[in-house]
Amino acid sequence: MTQTSLSGTTGNTAGVVPAVQIAGVTKDFGSVHAVRGIDLTLDQGEIVAFLGPNGAGKTTTIDMVLGLSHPTTGSVEVLGLQPRQAIARGLVSAVMQTGGLLKDLTVRETVAYTASLFADAAPVDQVLRTAGIESIAERKVGKCSGGEQQRLRFAMALLSDPALLLLDEPTTGMDVEGRRAFWSAIRADAEKGRTVLFATHYLEEADQYADRIVLISHGRIVADGTGSQIKALAAGRTVRATLPDPDPQRLSGLAGVDSVDVRGDTVYIHAKDTDDVARYLLTETRAQDLEITARGLEDAFLSLTGDDQDITPAPADQGVSA
Amino acid sequence: MTTQTIDPSLRRVPPFGGFNLTVLGIELKRMLRNRRTIVFTLILPAALLLSFGGQKGWDDKAGSGNVAAYILISMALYGAALTAAAGGSMVALERSLGWSRQLRLTPLNPVVYILMKALVALAMGALAIAAVNVVGALQGKAVMPTHVWVITPFLTLVCTLTFAALGVFIGYVVPGENAMQILGPGLALLSFLGGVFIPLDQYSDLVRHIAYWTPMYGVSEIARSVLTHDLPWYAVVNAVGWFAIFVAGAAWRMSKDTARV
Fold first, then answer.
1. Domains of chain A by range and CATH?
2. Across-strand partners of A246?
């Protein structure tokens, strides 16, 4: 198990308390090790994507940041405070995908109810207007569409002007236009110092909107860097060829080759410049049936987070024959 | 990247763990909008009073009043207990809807949440007691001294706290809307056993000895004690004991629950 450490992850600016500081955190549920050791620091104003498949430990980690559960070992601090203390000051909000609403309250009552719990909250009418739900303020929550309920959840989350906002798959079900508007609003708030951590399993969205992507798998962080750094992991192409008695050492020595994988008569060569590899194979060896495939972001993602824990780019069979 | 930062020390924590009148007002409005609650709170106990209260011997002497007054107090207790239990069971229902989780992301202290729920349940219980008393007064059969009319409703209200706790407890054990399906018939059965609907001296010795141990017995003796001038020590032990059991049960289930909100 390796963590891909990418250079240039944001260092902590001196004197400013980090938005989130997770140190040596593990979380066990009985014999299940949901989180196996995470260290993560988020600076104020960062937009960070928390990327990983279901069951990777994303939700468990977010629950600990929200103070909904406690780490088995290690510590979690939000703006230098215990999570519960940060929440008591209205510094942390979260928007979940489903639930969290009472159907028999009106939209206005839901916002007023939530606002009354904070020491300082924006005026209810203003919040309704900003969220674009002023016209449905008197409607029962149960009669609102999924989109309207999601706007309501956002309105509730922004009431206390949180310094840290956690989002779970925030743009699911939004159209392209809605998604763009959503992210430009998030971006504007981040410039005022709000930190946003969003969970997703779409690399595309993470790459497009996050300053930083944290890839989590099997309860550990497997990569942490900017979108382009993560994409660099997926750079290059793979050459597959049928080659009896290959010489792996010789193949590895070719210019630009990252890795060589020999499976019987078949070789998989991952390289930045596959043209040279192909030329060599066809002219200098008895290689046949050449296939050259690009490795997409999704493949990189899968190889980093999948059960195959080896992050050296040794593609699985499906990856090459596709 | 970051142009500004946020200083967490400028943020305040709300007083009283988030306790406030806005929430109480919205919760009460919400209860009063619920047709099922209104049926349980206002209509059912009053209807029971009208059907039980007219039975043979209603004007026989009972303590410092008559049998109709005895029945009135019993029905008020039953209505308030049912209402408070229904209110208590909403805690678990709201948990299943993810609302409790939502509230955990606000400064609201979980104990304050329960306290506010209990206050709303008590307010609804008071409404049930008031409804029975008004209907009883209009019916004109119940006779009891003024101080009994005044003191008994408050005594009854205190007794309903036990059933608010029972509601929270059962709500956690039986998830969702099913809680009321157990609490409704369950409370009716306990009321029969505890001498709320039928005086215990009508039962055989065996049933009566079981009745002394059931949760409705103690509170009904207490609620009627101002009228009957009679309060056995074991009725008080019963009431305090069951209150402690239900509060402990509710607290136990809730503490289990917060481990995985």
1. 4-8+16-231 (3.40.50.300), 234-321 (3.30.70)
2. none
